[in-house]
Every structure is written in structure tokens, then in C-alpha cells.
Amino acid sequence: MPKAIYIEANGGQYEVDVEVGQSLMEAATENMIDGIIGECGGVCSCATCHVYVDPAWVDKLAPVGDMEESMLDMANDPQDNSRLSCQIEMTDELDGIILRLPASQF
């Protein structure tokens, strides 16, 4: 099963098994990753699942859609590699993806 690596701002790291087709937000909330809430349930209507995708993985993701882009404008400290983890669906090709969590989202 593919894995995602979540790294907290304080350096804490979690390696999580993620089913192909599952969103990285769902995997984080199911595994109690602190800092990802997914308040809207993954329908891209909040920014409580904001992550920074490690630069090595950015080009392997589908482009940011218009709705996600507008939600990222509401995120705390958005960067060029900011994404909403609800909009990243796990694939075999993303095995080992590294996601960093912002210092404080809320």
C-alpha cells in the first residue's frame, strides 16, 4: 500500500498507509494527524487541510483547480507548493509523498 509522510512544523513525522483513491486529507484525519482537520469533509470549501507539498512531488500532482486556488487564498501563509490535502488523491505513483504542515492553521 502506498505511504504518505506528514511532517509537523515542530518536526514530528508520521508515515501513513493510504489506499489508492483515498484523499490525503482523509488518510490524515483517520490517523489523527494533528494539524489537519478537514472541517468541510473534503469538498474543497475550507482550508483546514492545507499542506505544503515537498518540492520533489509538486510536479507529480494534478494542477490546482479554480476552487482549490480560491480556498488556498484563505489558508494561513500560502506558498507556491501549498495544496489542500483533500484535493490530492493517492496513487501508486505518489508512494512516499512528503507533506509538511503549516506552523498554525487555526
From TrEMBL:
- Can you name this protein? (2Fe-2S)-binding protein
> What are the names of the required cofactors?
[2Fe-2S] cluster
Which GO molecular function entries does the Swiss-Prot or TrEMBL record give?
2 iron, 2 sulfur cluster binding; electron transfer activity; metal ion binding
**Keyword Amino-acid biosynthesis among record annotations:** no
Keywords in UniProt for this one? Answer: 2Fe-2S, Iron, Iron-sulfur, Metal-binding, Ubiquinone
Q: Which residues form the 2Fe-2S ferredoxin-type domain?
A: 3-105
Pfam families named among the record's database cross-references = Fer2
**Which family does the UniProt entry place this protein in?**
Belongs to the adrenodoxin/putidaredoxin family.
Check the record and name the PROSITE patterns matching this protein. Answer: 2FE2S_FER_2 (PS51085)
- Species whose genome carries this gene: Aliidiomarina soli
GO terms under biological process:
P450-containing electron transport chain
